[in-house]
From TrEMBL:
PROSITE patterns on file: CYTOCHROME_P450 (PS00086)
Subcellular location: Membrane
UniProt protein name: 22alpha-hydroxysteroid 23-monooxygenase
Enzyme class: oxidoreductase
Species: Penstemon smallii
Family per similarity comment: Belongs to the cytochrome P450 family.
Stored Pfam families: p450 (PF00067)
CDD domains (alphabetical): CYP90-like
Amino acid sequence: MQIDMMMLISLAISILMLLLSAIFIMYCNCRKKIKTSTYDDTQSLGGRRRPRLPLGSLGIFPFIGETIQFISSAYSHKPETFINKRRLMYGNVFKSHLFGSPTIVSTDAEVSKIILQSDGKIFVPSYPKSLMELMGKSSILLINGALQKRIHGLIGAFFKSSNLKSQVTTEMQNYVTQSMANWTEHSPLYIQDEAKTIAFQVLVKALISLDPGDEMELLKKHFQEFIAGLMSLPFTFPGTQLYRSLQAKKKMVKLIHGIIETKRKLNINQRINVAKDVADVLLNDTSEELTDDLIAENMIDLMIPGEDSVPVLITLAIKYLSDCPAALNQLTEENLKLKMLKEKLGQPLSWNDYLSLPFTQTVITETLRIGNIIIGVMRKAMKDVEIKGHCIPKGWCVLAYFRAVHLDDKLYDFPYQFNPWRWQEKDTNNCSFTPFGGGQRLCPGLDLARLEASIFLHHFVTQFRWEAEDDSIINFPTVRMKKRMPVWVKRRRYP
């Protein structure tokens, strides 16, 4: 037994030495490759000085680079610390090595705008391997060119339609009313959980017309297993999180395939061309590229905001309002005034009513700025690119880091202070405010996200007073509340 143990230890040491040797050789080759791909600003081309690679560090370890420092900072209460430290040393655009790739990090709003607005021939999406594998090659988040523009355009136009906004308003009001009717004053209520349940149901209805029930619960169960692997280790053997997430996606694709097949038969038999949901929009398109597999997989990808972005927006808004009584009072007065007016007129609230509440919209805007639900986007350069004198070599990744821009004290006074009044005189249509991305990949559901948050806040503040328990924000790998935002509610009494 002891001999076997010694042999195992010896074998393990030998394997470790081989791995370290291989890593060292690859590291040297990697450094050599990176060095030869940079530009020497002392050389010239046609009498013009070549742009130079931004200053920065690639770290001392191959493949790892500065990833550990980045993730360590991301888990802290100020995840921008890693970025800000290097920005002070190297400038607003600097080089690093993150998630296995040499990377140019941009905290310059104008540089990030150019990156976001560039077409797929210059920059393509680039994400950690686990996310890329889970999304699949057909995902709207990863595809490029004419197909991406076509799908994005079809979905964007449908999401902006007044018919869908009316449907979402009706569905959101119904789910919010049903949920709030069961809230009790005798135990804490977890806002993050409530918002997730409601937003997921609303979005799935808009995507595939699935109502709450056993099938919805099964879909949600598989989806939660799927989303757990988005930022997991890139190993796909049985027992790993990524493997479980891939299996969950297969089950969801099969379920959605059944829904698509039923829709196709119904549309043929009844000659229905009016789209009730996103699946209908894509099915009605005559392009041969829009296969059932592509539609099913993209329906899953589009469910992510219902589980993540919209619920977090709602939760953070209530968090910040709980900590800012002046903002809460003004928002409550605005919504109570609208509620009483509509009751006096005997009219239901429309989607336009919710989106026309000025102070409510500034609260949502400020929540998006300070909350940074999406901290940034990653792209990969398909050729050597020069932006504002900075060289981005072919094959390098670019991280457009929104959070650093949104919290820049040169752009926003007291940036860490929740101040919705700042938006009463500030335009949201500028390159220093990009909570939904930008360019041809601008999130198509941005209006729906604002609408759903507005509806939830309206019903919450007009029906309840509350006291929030202490809770903290976790910023990585996704933004969420550590304790799920527990609050104690008390119903408002009206004469």
